Structure formats: structure tokens, C-alpha cells
Amino acid sequence: MTVRRETTTAEVRNRLIGYPRIDVDEEVARTAGRLLAAADDAVGGSSGVGANDAYIGAMAEIMDDAVLTENVADFEALGVATESY
Description:
The protein has helices at about 10-15, 25-45, 50-60, 70-75; strands at about 65-70, 80-85. The protein contains four helices and two strands. β1, α4 (about 70-75) and β2 (about 80-85) form a beta-alpha-beta unit. The protein is globular, with a radius of gyration of 15 Å.
């Protein structure tokens, strides 16, 4: 079971199958590292932004697109365009 008790792990896995997957290649890794380093530098330490958000932000930057998220703060810290819902 997951955090939502009525949703099983298998159900979550099946829902995720429909989402596109990307490989973290050198371009994505370098871009994520640059974004994360800049966010950390901006606050003089750890920005609190996780590596997964940095990878997502990197893909948004590479694709010149916004991240659709409820977690706007982390992506704004990365300097990535966002759209919220």
C-alpha cells in the first residue's frame, strides 16, 4: 500500500507507465548540476532543492518549456519557468 491507503503499489506503478521517461544523459546532468549549484549559491548554502527536481528543471530548460507543478518554490529557486494548478 502507498500513503493513500486505498491505492496499492501496483496501481501507482500502472499509473506511472503512461508518463514519458527520459534518460539522464550528460546534457541533463550538467544542466541539473548548474541549476542546483546556482540555487545553492543564491542562498549561501543548501537551497533544499532535491536532485529529482533539478533533473526535471533541467529538462524544462533544455526543452524551453515550463514545469507544471504545485511545488513552484523549488523550481523558482532553480530559475525555471513554472505553471501551477
